[in-house]
Inverse folding.
């Protein structure tokens, strides 16, 4: 029997911050469940900006030869994607947005009507840390903007959601709140 493969992507620059702690919690749970986990730290990768050439729509991979190739390969091989990202200006950080831009042809095929997904059959979980306290992070659209952006990428790629967990008031947390840990563990 094949092990379930999980791709865990850290989309934040703080390797010991709340976002990283949320991802580490999910990774530990997945490993305890017998999953094979591949972790990618976006801020440690060399990923150039998208040039808008759109060649990837036909080739299914970006023409630029950098670390995006590792992510493309891992996306095709995994069963589940866990993306952990902080909220920056009510959206995802630049590294996450850049990854989405560079994965255009990997994620979808253009048609005369709606995009055709290229990664169907996979699942995703979003882990979001937001410095704005609850419920203001939701009321003022801070975490909602980031969730909307990430959902759009995964939905277009054909990947189904299994959970979206927001840790509000995340600044300078030494430990994850137990309620957040329980939510993460329940979803995997």
């Amino acid at each position: 029997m094949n092990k379930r493969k999980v791709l865990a992507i850290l989309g934040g620059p703080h390797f010991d911050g709340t976002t990283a702690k949320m991802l580490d919690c999910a990774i530990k749970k997945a490993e305890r469940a017998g999953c094979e986990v591949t972790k990618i730290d976006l801020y440690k990768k060399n990923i150039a900006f998208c040039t808008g050439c759109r060649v990837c729509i036909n080739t299914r991979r970006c023409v630029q030869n950098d670390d995006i190739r590792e992510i493309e390969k891992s996306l095709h091989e995994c069963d589940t994607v866990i993306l952990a990202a902080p909220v920056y200006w009510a959206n995802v950080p630049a590294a996450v947005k850049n990854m989405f831009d560079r994965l255009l042809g990997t994620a979808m095929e253009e048609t005369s009507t709606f995009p055709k997904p290229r990664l169907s059959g996979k699942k995703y979980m979003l882990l979001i840390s937001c410095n704005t306290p609850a419920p203001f992070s939701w009321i003022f659209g801070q975490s909602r903007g980031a969730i909307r952006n990430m959902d759009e990428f995964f939905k277009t790629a054909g990947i189904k959601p299994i959970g979206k967990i927001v840790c509000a008031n995340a600044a300078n947390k030494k430990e994850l709140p137990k309620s957040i840990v329980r939510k993460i563990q329940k979803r995997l």
Q: What stands out?
A: The chain has a mean pLDDT of 93. The radius of gyration is 16 Å. Strands lie at 5-10, 36-41, 80-86, 108-109, 116-117, 123-130, 160-168. The longest strand covers residues 160-168.
